[in-house]
């Protein structure tokens, strides 16, 4: 069965321009063209695009590109390990969000943001309190997610109570999304300045992670369909008892 671009766009509720974007970035094999130059999408194309669409929602474009390249090479085992790695990372991000939520309870929050007499601490001290590497904090600062002033005498970055709360928020949001642009958007629209507001943001972050988990499983469904279409003998759904003989 062949499809027109508009047919696939309607089936997957995407635009034809997004379809061309997938093709431009070689996320699926280029379709054949008719004598008049129109794209002709086959059943293989459709299954690829289904897998691409669900994978981009689950993993983002960079990981999807790696995943689809492995599938096209028929390196299915490595593709499955890539998915497993993504699931492991998501679990780590869930733990970060849980830990951050625990830290945001009033007593813990006040302990973490408590300042010495001078009113600020160094980047090393901030990293230690929040279990974030100094390199990560510098990267977030470089990307404009956080602004901190410097001490006139020592030139050290000064992390005060507000900066520490901001770091907690950034770490929380970053754990639930792979995109720094999304982090910027949330920071611009959501001003969490009190522990209560930060807890609300933490709960929203956990909801985002739950949604990503759902997207991961949906993506696996369509990846499975694609692989079984390309290589029907690759998976054995119900192996015999010899499967257990090692």
TrEMBL record:
Superkingdom in the source lineage: Bacteria
Keywords: DNA-binding, Repressor, Transcription, Transcription regulation
Cleaved signal peptide residues: none
Keyword Transcription regulation listed: yes
Any one GO molecular function term: DNA binding
UniProt keyword Cell membrane present: no
HTH merR-type domain: residues covered: 2-55, 120-189
Protein name: HTH merR-type domain-containing protein
């Amino acid at each position: 069965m062949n499809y027109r671009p508009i047919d696939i766009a309607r089936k997957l509720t995407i635009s034809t321009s997004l379809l061309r974007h997938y093709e431009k970035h070689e996320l699926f094999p280029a379709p054949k063209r008719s004598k008049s130059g129109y794209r002709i999408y086959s059943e293989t194309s459709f299954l690829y695009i289904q897998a691409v669409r669900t994978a981009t929602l689950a993993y983002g474009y960079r990981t999807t590109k790696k995943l689809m390249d492995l599938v096209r090479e028929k390196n299915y085992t490595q593709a499955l390990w890539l998915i497993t790695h993504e699931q492991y990372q998501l679990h780590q991000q869930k733990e970060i969000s849980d830990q951050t939520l625990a830290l945001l309870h009033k007593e813990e929050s006040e302990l973490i943001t408590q300042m010495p007499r001078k009113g600020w601490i160094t980047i090393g001290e901030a990293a230690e309190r929040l279990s974030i590497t100094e390199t990560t904090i510098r990267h977030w600062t470089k990307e404009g997610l956080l602004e901190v002033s410097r001490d006139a005498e020592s030139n050290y970055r000064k992390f005060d109570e507000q900066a520490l709360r901001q770091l907690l928020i950034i770490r929380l949001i970053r754990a639930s999304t792979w995109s720094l642009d999304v982090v910027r958007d949330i920071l611009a629209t959501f001003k969490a300045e009190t522990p209560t507001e930060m807890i609300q943001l933490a709960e929203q972050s956990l909801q985002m992670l739950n949604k990503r988990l759902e997207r991961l499983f949906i993506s696996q469904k369509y990846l499975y369909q694609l692989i079984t279409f390309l290589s029907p003998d690759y998976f054995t759904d119900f192996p015999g008892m010899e499967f257990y003989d090692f």
